[in-house]
Amino acid sequence: MKYLRCTSLCILCVCMFSIIGCTVGPDFQPPTVSVPSAWTGTDGQKTGTVDIVNWWKQFDDPNLTSLIDRAVTSNLDLKQAQSRLRQARAARRIVSAGLWPTIDATGSYKKSQSPDTAKTSGTKSDLWQSGLDAVWEIDIFGGVRRGVEAAESDINAAIEDQRDVMITVSSEVAINYIELRGFQQEIAFANNNLKAQQHTAELTRQRFSSGLVSALDVANADAQVGTTASQIPTLEASARQTIYNLSILLGQEPAALLTELSPVSQIPYAPPALPLDLPSDLLRRRPDIRRAEAKIHAATARIGVATADLFPKFNLVGSVGYQSNALDKMVSSKYGFWSIGPSVDWQVFNAGSVRANIEVQKALTEQAALTYQSTVLTALQDVENALVAYSKEQQRNKALLGTVIANRKAVDLATQLYTQGQTGFLSVLDAQRSLYTSEDSLVQSTRNLSTDLVSIYKALGGGWEDETNPTPQQSSEK
Q1: Which member of 75, 124, 351, 464 lies 3.0 to 4.6 Å from 163 by CB, making a disulfide possible if both were Cys?
Q2: In the chain, where are the structural domains located?
Q3: The CATH number, out of the four listed (1.25.40.10, 1.10.620.20, 1.20.1600.10, 1.10.357.10), of the domain defined by the range 35-99+141-304+366-477
Q4: What is the pLDDT of residues 271-292, one digit of tens each?
Q5: In terms of pLDDT, which residue wins out, 223 or 42?
Q6: Burial of 342 (0-12, 13-18, 19+ CB in 10 A)
C-alpha cells in the first residue's frame, strides 16, 4: 500500500509538471518587410473590381475556361503537389504520436528441460507469459509540442505549394492557349497576304506578256510570294507544338487536343480593368510568400525541438501481465504481475552536439527569413514587370493598329497606280511587305497584351480561393 501511495504521488507530480511545463525555444513572430505604398508601373491604367480567383473567365472564352478547369483536375505537377500535402499531413500525425503513450503487447511460450544429475532427475516444464508494456514521455519542456508546431507549419507550406502550382498551371494553360490563337491568326494573315501577292504576281506576268514591265518585276513578285509562303510552315509547326504543350499541361498525350484546338479562333482578350490593390495585399495573396512564411515558422519551432534536448526527459513506465506454467491458468490473478513508475533520461555529456544542433536550426531559420525577404522582392518585381509590359504594349498596339490601316490603304493605292502604269512594281512590293510586317506585328502585340494580362493575374497570386478566410470581394459574391 505504501508503494502504491508513493507511485501515485510520483505520477501526480509528473502530470503537474507536464501541465505547467514550459515550451523551450523562441516563439514564432511573423516577419515584417517594407513594401512600397503604391505600384509605379500602372501608368494611369484603369482599375476595377475583377474576380481574381477565376480570372480566366474575364476573357469570356469557353475553350480557355474548359482547358483550365480540366488542367486543375488532371495536371501531373498539381497531383504531385497534392501528394506532398498528404505526405506532410501524415508526417504531422507521426510527430503528434509522441504526445501519447506507446503500448506494446508481448506474448511468449517456452518449453525447457533440466539435465539429469546424481541428485535430481531431469524434469520438463512449460512457461506461458503475456502482458502489456507502456512508456509515456511527459513533454515537460515542450520538445514534442514544438515538433508538432513545426509539422503543422510544414502542412501550411505544402498547402501554399499546392496553390502556387495551381496558379502556375492555370497561367501556363492560358498563355499557351493565347499563343496558339496568335499563331493561328498569324497563319491566317500570312495566307491572306500570300493570296494577294499571288494575284499581284499573276498581274505582273500578264503585264510582262504585254511588254509593259520587265522580267525583273516578275522575278521580284515571285520572290515575294516564295518568301511569304516559306513562313507559313514555321507558324504551323509552332501552332502544333503549342497544342502539344496544352495536352501535356492537361496530363494527356501530346496529340490528344489536336481535333479540339485545330479550328481557328480569335485571340481572347479581357477588359482592360486591372485588379490592383495595395502592394501590402500581395503579402497575403501570393502563395510563394505565404509558403516562405510557413517555412520560417517551421524552422523557428525546430529550434525549440533542438533546445529541448538540453533538458531531462521524464517517462512514465508501466507493465502488466500474466505468467504461468499452464495455459489455462493465465487468466488467474494469482499469476498476474504489474509494475509502474517514473524514469528520467538526461544526456549529461554529448560533446556539445545538442548545442551545435541548436546553432544549425538557428542558421536554418535565418536562411528561411532571408528567403522570405527575397521572395517578397521577387513578387514585387513580378508585378511591376507585368504592369509596365502591359502598359507599354497597349501603346504599341494602338500605334500598330493605325499602321495596319495606313498600309492597307497604301497597298490599294500602289496596286491601282501600278495597274495604270503610273508607278513601278517596287512601290507595290514595298507596300505589300510593309502591310504583311505590320499585320504580323499587330497580331503579336494583341497576343502580348493578353499574355501580359495573364502575367499580371499570376504575379498578383490570382487563381485560388481561401475558403476559410475569403477576401471581402469573395465574401460579397457569396
Answers
A1: 464
A2: 35-99+141-304+366-477
A3: 1.20.1600.10
A4: 777 777 778 787 788 999 999 9
A5: 223
A6: middle
